[in-house]
Structures are given as C-alpha cells and as structure tokens.
Amino acid sequence: MKKNILVLLSMGLLLFLQGCNFANPMNYFKSADSSRLEETSEEASTEEETSKSSNSSVINTNETSATSEGETTESTEAEVNTESSLLVYSIGNAVNTESNSLTLEDKNYSVNYANYDISNANALETADLIKIETAINENLASNNYVIVVTSTQTCEELSYFLNLTLSSDNKIAVISTEILDNKYALVDSDITNYLGQLTTSELSGNILTAKIGDSLENVSTNPVSNENKIDITDLKDLSYVSIVYDYLGNDGSILEKAISNSDGIILVTTNKSGEVSETASEIINSNYSGVPVIIVSANENTDLSNYHTPTQSRILLSLALAKGANMDEIKDYFTTY
C-alpha cells in the first residue's frame, strides 16, 4: 500500500515539473541568468549612450569656445599690427636721426624723411613758403602725420602761412630748434614725443607749433578750418610787404621809403595805447599811392580774439594782396583770419 502511494507521488511530481517546463532544472537557472545579463547589458548600453550623448554636448561647447577664442586672438593681433606713416620734413638742414620706424601705444609707425633744399634755413623768401606748402601737401596722401622742422628765425612765418593755406585731416606740427653741426637738434625721443602729442591733441587747429622741448599749441588765436583755407594753387610768390616800427621821435623817413618800395605796410606801434606817433599819422594820412597800411600793436592785445603779431600781419597782407584783394576785402581777411 505504502509502495503504491510513493509511486503515485513520484509520478505526480514528475508531471508537475514537466508542466512547468522544469524537465531540466539547471536550464531554468541558466535561462534566468541569461535574462538578467541581457537586461543588465541593455541598461549598461543605455547608460553608456546617455553618457556619450552628455559628454558629446560638453565637448562641442568647448570646441565652439576654443574656436571663438582663436578667432578673437587673430583679430586682436591684426589690430596691433596696423601701421601708419610719419613724415619728418626739414627745412634746409637734415635732422639728427635716421630711425625708420617707431612704436607708440602698441601701434607701428614707419618714419620717412624729406628735405626742402635751401642754402640758408634762416633766410626763407615768400616764394619758398609756397613751395614748402606744395611739397608737404603732395606728401599728405602717403603719410598720416607730418612734423616740419625749421629754424627758430623762420618758424612763426612758416607755421602761420601753413595755418592759412594747408588743408589736412590730420594735425601737422611745425617745430623750431637750433642747428648744431649743420643738423637740427632733433633726436628720436623728440619725434616720438611730438607724434604722441599729434595723435592725442584736442587743440582745434590742424597746424600746431612748438619750440623744441615745449608742448604743441595752436599757431594763432584764430585757427583756420580746412573749409576756410586760402587757395594758393595759382600763386608763385606773395606781394612784398614791409614791417615798420613806429616810435616817439622818429623822423618818418623809414616809413616814407617803405611806402615807396612796398606793396603794403605793417606799421607796428610800440606804446600800450596802440596809437601811432604824430609823424607817422601825417605820413599815412597823406599817402595817396594806394599802398595799404595795417596798424598793429607790438604788445599782444588779449581783448582781441583774432590778434595778429607783426609777422602774422605781414604774411596775411602779403597773401591778400597776391590774391588781388581791395581794401574792403583786406579788412575781411583780417577779420576772418
């Protein structure tokens, strides 16, 4: 009886295992392990793809940033390497330097040299002023800045003439200095100094001047804009104007001779009132030759916005007469300039 029961139980267990596909129990464990490995592999693959996607995004951002930085660097280097040109134009004598380049505020400048050939730099004629202006004007197209070097004796005449006639978008410096060993006493540091002043100057005039070692300043109390420059294209020379000083007790002979031999007269009073002497007054009032006489004071009148020194007055009257101005037009010249 017991034997029959055991047989029945064994058969039932076998049928149960077969029904559950457990004919080979080890296959069950193998299948389970395989499923878990596949799931683990899929999860790992998903995580890896996610990780790669995330890393790829970061790398792309860095690459973009790196490219951008590289482009910025190239642009900056291009700006630093920009070069401008400076002309050093000397009158009669050479300057005491031969440097062909200089660097100012991280900007490179090539330095060119030119010379106006005249045997005596202290003896400029009015025709020389026109030739110098023409030469400088011809060089403006190939040079950003110009430094004119001349003697102390001729600086005021030259600088004021250029102030009246030379049109330039950039500022030009006229520097006066001594002549030592047949050369102007101008060295590299002076050129760098005045170029720096030219590039940063806020002065209204485009023609500036200075005695070597001093700061640049306007040539006159009334700087001339490019629109108001006097055209000298057709002029070869200026009219002849004499400067005569009036003083108490003079006999008037010098003034009379000057009126006879000049196209115009600058009569300079030496008293603070600005009035001429009685002798000079009689001569100019009886002058029927039509020679213009301009009376100026040797003492600068700070009340006048367009005060002219005797030298400036001579240059301006010479220009006005050369342009064919009559007395009313001459008055306009001295009011405008």
From TrEMBL:
Region (Disordered): 39-81
Signal peptide range: 1-23
Entry keyword Signal: yes
Swiss-Prot/TrEMBL keywords: Signal, Transferase
Single annotated GO MF: transferase activity
Keyword Nuclease among record annotations: no
Low complexity bias spans: 52-70
InterPro entries the record matches: Asp/glu_Ase-like_sf, Asparaginase/glutaminase-like, L-asparaginase_C
Identification of the protein by name: L-asparaginase/Glu-tRNAGln amidotransferase subunit D
Record organism: Lachnospira pectinoschiza
